[in-house]
Specification:
Distance between the termini: 15 Å
Structural class: alpha/beta
Shape: globular
Bound molecules: zinc ion
Largest sheet: 7 strands, mixed
Strand order of the largest sheet: 3-2-1-4-5-7-6
Number of strands: 7
Length: 226
Amino acid sequence: MLFLTVTAHPDDEILGFGASASVLTRKGHEVINLILSGQVEARRHKPSQTELESDSASAQFIVGAEPAILGPFPNIKFNTVPHLDLVQFIEKRIDEIRPDYIFTHHPYDLNNDHYHTSKACQAAARLYQRKPIKPIKGLYFMEIPSSTDWAFPVDGQKFTPNTYIEVGEEGVMAKLQALAAYKGVMRDFPHPRSEEVIKSYAAIRGAEAGLKYAEAFQVAYNILEF
Ligand SMILES: [Zn+2]
């Protein structure tokens, strides 16, 4: 199966799907990460462009993903980009890649780029209804520690985990290693992007489903095949 993640920033793909990517690729599936803002501008650590690209390449390698596709959209400024530009950019990649499953941000994440990514990805995921290509089997929202958990559920809308991928201790370790490849991303406990909390998330999400460590997702659309 071919799994495509569509995220806003370099590191989101690992925070939300890194352990799953590691497990899936070890089982022979393919994972491609499309990162809409591949630019260094406004990143806290402020690496050079080459450094960011090399960090991203190391992270993909660690979890067994293909080289990431880095988009041109401005970090923390997706609200200034026409919705259609984001949709068409994602659609073009869906058309080229033809994924079976797509994982993207939850639309109620605190980070505004995540919101715009999610909305554009939801529109783009419908490409099969406008063009004769194979339909996707599923679209899911991922959980990003320090963004999904920081959203205020003011209108009752929040991430509701209902889909799980078991990742085991090995998957969690690969995720931590890939996150460490991105310089300046990990923080000290009790920040949500600390080793302790990332591990705890995996333990708690696993426990919710009776699994040994898991990443959790919220299903937006799903075709059941038997
Ligand atoms: Zn992000």
